[in-house]
Write a structure and sequence with these properties.
The protein is mostly helical. The protein contains 27 helices and eight strands. It has a six-stranded mixed β-sheet. The protein has a two-stranded antiparallel sheet with strand order 1-2.
Length: about 575
């Protein structure tokens, strides 16, 4: 019988956890929601400024989008909103000459949100979520590290009260530029840094030593950013009366903008076309990072993430951001870990956080005016530093040089050429590295381990071999890309073992043989037969045998044979 509830839950995952929702879950979610809301205010403002946008766009993006994700997303703890890496990508898009020429960066940001959401929904409809597999983990780490270094370079001047430098390679220009820093701003930055480090490291360690509960430690430590902003704002208000000039956020409109897509759709034309490539890159990174974070927390609790449904949840969240006047959104690592560590059981925590932020936007906006940009810059720097993983390059290089090169080149590409070019370079290198690996497969001459039926590489083990029998194991599918390499390997071995009469190709690791490889095997078989040698195969898998039976390969192979086991081949030919 058709279950309407199950069918509806497929499209609205919120129904799944609401069916078993308990009072204790709400208590946990309420606590986590309050703690996460405390982080949303400074982060929303900071990431909007990082993107080169008015602060309210970051706040708006932290209200309706997480609500929509809570309805449609499959992660119970993912916190959706503005994120650091996406913010620097938005800044890159908005600062490109073609976009600057169009004017109105706020409108461009809304178009980016809309296009990102639509692209995600199209990917869901076309089942294209697997496309993200083209970005390997090393490339993603290299990209994140490079983007984080760009963010650090972008924010450091703000901590000194400086505007972004425009000196090119003029050293003298930089010298005079640095000398123009603001002492008061530097003091506020250093004070903010000390307070953040106190709350994030020293205070939790001290509280843990005296036996304070873990949830309470989390609650106290995550109040650091909001307390930093509050104290810095008070300091600026006092200092401004003493004639000190410090860069502040400025007026943040109270309440919400008109909920409409009319303004966005009217400007889609030229602006939409110009922004589409940027939106595609933002979508790709936002989706990959969001799913990775969602899977990380879900695995800790034995929960399941459905990537295709994540595309829908994130897509609708970004469209909601555009509708409500917000910047593009994704799952944020720091907010999600705060939400998770604070004990969130479901997305009810984010619904509570979004509701609290909405109240703050409606009634507390005047308090945001004197927030110093320096304090926000320090908050971003403290949050972004763990994402710079230079040591990872050395670890990756030691394990796999191809991946290590891809990670390093991606990082350098982001820094030298730009975000989009850097990640494309990394993707191309990863694909090239994999193609090279598949075109140079591992091939081993094997022999039998004494007193067993196991066959192992003669270079790694003490094994029994036969002067007239050559056993070769190919550890890769046979394709047009590697068949020449395999032939060259075989020819080289035959020159080394001149007494060989029988060759056995062991196909334990072969799942497919393409047309080009099949034709090459047939030609190789004919060449061996002309010299009085036989070609045989052993341990071929069912799908491979099924394909070969559709041809006359086995007829051509005679007197060569296809053996079920390598041991059978040795007993008959050895």
């Amino acid at each position: 019988m058709f279950d309407n509830t199950s069918s509806l839950a497929h499209f609205l995952p919120i129904i799944d956890w609401l069916k078993t929702y308990r009072q204790q879950d709400f208590t946990d979610d309420l606590f986590a929601g309050i703690i996460t809301a405390i982080l949303l205010v400074p982060q929303g403002i900071a990431y909007a400024i990082l993107a080169g946008l008015p602060p309210q766009l970051g706040l708006y993006a932290s209200i309706l989008p997480p609500i929509m994700y809570a309805l449609l997303g499959t992660s119970r703890t993912l916190s959706v909103g503005p994120v650091s890496v996406a913010s620097i990508m938005i800044a890159s898009a908005l600062s490109s000459p073609a976009i600057v020429a169009l004017g109105n960066p706020m409108q461009s940001a809304l178009v980016l949100s809309l296009e990102s959401g639509v692209i995600m929904l199209l990917m869901a409809v076309l089942r294209m979520g697997s496309l993200v597999n083209f970005i390997s983990h090393p490339v993603l780490v290299g990209f994140t590290s490079g983007a984080s270094l760009l963010i650090i370079g972008n924010q450091l001047p703000l901590t000194l009260g400086l505007k972004s430098p425009n000196c090119g390679i003029d050293v003298a220009c930089y010298t005079s530029y640095i000398q123009g820093f603001n002492n008061t701003t530097l003091f506020i930055s250093l004070s903010a840094l000390a307070l953040l480090l106190l709350f994030s490291q020293l205070l939790p360690m001290s509280l843990k030593k005296i036996g304070v509960k873990a949830t309470l430690i989390t609650a106290i430590s995550k109040c650091g950013p909001l307390l930093t902003v509050l104290l810095a704002t008070i300091a600026v208000s006092v200092l401004s009366t003493m004639g000190q000039s410090i860069a502040v956020v400025g007026v943040v409109p109270a309440g919400f903008p008109e909920f409409t897509l009319t303004g966005v759709t009217e400007s889609l034309g030229q602006r939409g076309k110009a922004l589409l490539p940027f939106a595609a890159f933002i979508t790709l990174i936002a989706y990959i990072e969001s799913v990775a974070i969602a899977k990380m927390t879900a695995n800790l609790r034995g929960e399941k993430i459905i990537p295709s449904q994540e595309l829908i949840g994130l897509g609708v969240a970004n469209i909601a951001a555009s509708l409500s006047g917000g910047m593009p959104v994704a799952g944020g690592l720091s907010r999600t870990m705060v939400n998770f560590s604070a004990g969130a059981r479901t997305q009810m925590a984010m619904l509570i956080a979004a509701a609290l932020l909405a109240v703050a936007v409606m009634f507390c906006s005047p308090w945001f005016t004197n927030i110093p940009k320096a304090a926000l810059a320090v908050i971003i720097l403290v949050a972004i530093m763990p994402l710079v993983k230079i040591k990872s390059i050395f670890h990756t290089w030691a394990y796999d040089k191809g991946d290590g090169i891809a990670e390093l080149v991606t990082l350098l590409g982001v820094l030298i050429f730009g975000i989009e070019q850097g990640i494309m370079l990394g993707i191309i290198l990863t694909i090239a590295s994999n193609l090279r690996k598949s075109s140079h497969p591992h091939i081993a001459v094997v022999g039998r381990v004494p007193d067993t039926e196991h066959y192992r590489n003669i270079k790694r083990h003490h094994v029994q071999t036969w002067h007239h029998l050559l056993l070769i194991r190919i550890d890769e599918n046979l394709t047009f890309a590697n068949i020449n390499y395999i032939e060259e390997f075989l020819v080289t071995e035959l020159k080394r073992q001149t007494d060989t009469r029988h060759i056995v190709l062991i196909f334990t690791s072969v799942s497919d043989i393409d047309t080009t490889a099949l034709e090459a095997l047939e030609s190789l078989n004919q060449a061996l037969q002309s010299t009085g040698k036989t070609l045989n195969i052993a341990e071929a898998k069912g799908p491979v045998l099924d394909k070969l039976k559709k041809t006359d390969f086995f007829e051509q192979l005679k007197p060569g044979l296809a053996f079920f086991r390598t041991e059978d081949a040795v007993k008959q030919l050895g």
